[in-house]
Specification:
It is a single chain. Helix content is 41%, strand content 16%. Strands 1-2-3-4-5-6-8-10 form an eight-stranded parallel β-barrel, surrounded by six helices. A two-stranded antiparallel ribbon has the order 9-11. It has helices at 5-17, 25-31, 48-57, 69-72, 82-93, 111-114, 120-137, 177-189, 207-221, 242-254, 278-296, 315-319, 338-349, and strands at residues 35-40, 60-63, 97-105, 142-149, 194-199, 228-231, 234-235, 258-266, 268-269, 301-306, 324-325. The protein binds ligand G3I. Residues 64-65, 68, 108, 149, 200, 232, 263, 315 line the site of ligand G3I.
């Protein structure tokens, strides 16, 4: 059988960049049954270095944007699964799990939805249909979903959104009832899928994590189907309260909830030449290390996922207008950084190390 040039290039790249015979993140993670994952994009999959690094280092992936409403719903009647399907195919080919992101979010929705002047009844029908169609399409392939993303404000109150109160799906002014409804629909659509609430800025003890905790405690007490919480973990200031993260994960464990670290990145300030300071790369590595350790020390923390893996493809650059960057474990030419080494070391040490 003829092996294509692309495959040879992929094999060559895998060999050189794996440090020849060294262990990879996924090999180390698999010894303890941990999922080590990353957000993935479709266009760069055609780059051998991107594809090889993704398959070599991670045992799970999550489409960064391809499963959002804007990608899946070009118009009211059409579902376009092509991009997301291609990422799922890549995962299956490389024996990786797939985490789905995200079924309900106030942002990144298509214009036809945001500007459609739908009534609450219509929106309710649209969201129910969306959750059902998407989860049924990926049933058996996507094992866990961010059912609701970022529905709370920093101070812990419910965030205004098309799903809550603009005009919402029929529960405006009723606290977290619209979130509950999304979880109930998701469980009906795929009873086997793990269902997560995913949130930013609630990683350690603060008003927002207190509000998440209170909501989930209420959900658990009333039998709302929910399995876990995604702690996003975008770290913008080279500081992370890792004791607070551990305490937060522990209180969620006491509710019987899993935790996934879902969007880890640690962005660095860039100088006018887009360079970072060497000491910042080392501080960044220590933050990665401490967060991975906090997860590994908590038996309910089942996945560690970075938001992309190469600095070549990261949301940070454009969203910070070029003032911050280099947030991920691999640089722009797929060389591993100190952060990679720190994550690898902690995964090698495994779950039982207390530091
Ligand atoms: O799809 C269009 C493409 O057709 C067009 O050519 C291109 C031109 O800019 O834009 C493309 O859309 C972009 C989309 O990502 C898909 O790549 C949007 O402009 C861009 O704003 C969008 O950004 C994403 C953002 O969420 C909004 O959905 C980022 O890639 C993604 O990293 C970011 O991820 C979020 C998580 O979902 C939730 N938590 C926060 C996190 C960071 O903001």
């Amino acid at each position: 059988m003829k092996v294509s040039g692309f495959i040879w290039l992929l094999l060559w790249f895998t060999f050189v960049t794996a440090g020849c015979w060294g262990q990879t993140l996924r090999q180390e993670a698999e010894r303890d049954g941990i999922l080590v994952s990353t957000a993935a994009r479709l266009p760069p999959l055609s780059e051998p270095a991107y594809a090889a690094t993704l398959a070599r280092e991670f045992n799970m992936l999550e489409p960064e944007d391809a499963m959002k409403w804007a990608a899946l719903r070009p118009d009211e009647r059409t579902f376009d699964f092509r991009e997301a399907d291609a990422l799922v195919r890549f995962a299956v080919e490389h024996k990786m799990k797939v985490r789905g992101h995200c079924l309900t979010w106030g942002r990144n929705n298509p214009d036809w939805l945001m500007q459609g002047h739908f009534t609450s009844n219509q929106l309710s029908r649209l969201l129910h249909e969306h959750i059902t169609r998407v989860m049924e399409h990926y049933s058996g392939q996507v094992f866990a979903w961010d059912v609701v993303n970022e529905a709370l404000e920093e101070k812990g109150t419910v965030r205004g959104s098309i799903w809550y109160d603009q005009p919402g799906i029929g529960f405006a002014g009723q606290g977290t009832a619209h979130i509950e409804q999304a979880f109930r629909w998701a469980h009906e659509a795929d009873p086997k899928a793990l269902l997560f609430y995913n949130e930013a800025e609630g990683e350690w003890m603060n008003r927002k994590s207190d509000a998440i905790y209170a909501m989930l405690k209420d959900f658990k007490q009333r039998g709302v189907p929910i399995d876990g919480v995604g702690l996003q973990m975008h770290i913008p200031f080279l500081e992370a309260d890792t004791y607070g993260i551990a305490a937060n994960i522990a209180r969620l464990a006491a509710l019987g909830l899993q935790v996934n670290i879902t969007e880890l990145d640690v962005s660095l300030p860039l100088d006018s030449n887009s360079m970072v300071r060497a000491e910042d790369l080392l501080r960044q590595a220590e933050i990665y290390r401490a967060i991975v350790r906090a997860c590994l020390n908590s038996s309910n923390c089942t996945a560690i996922q970075t938001w992309g893996f190469t600095d070549k493809y990261s949301w940070i650059g454009s969203h910070s207008r070029g003032t911050r960057g280099q947030a991920l474990p691999f640089d722009r030419i797929y060389r591993s950084k100190p952060a990679y080494r720190a994550v690898l070391d902690e995964l090698s040490a495994g779950r039982s190390q207390s530091r």
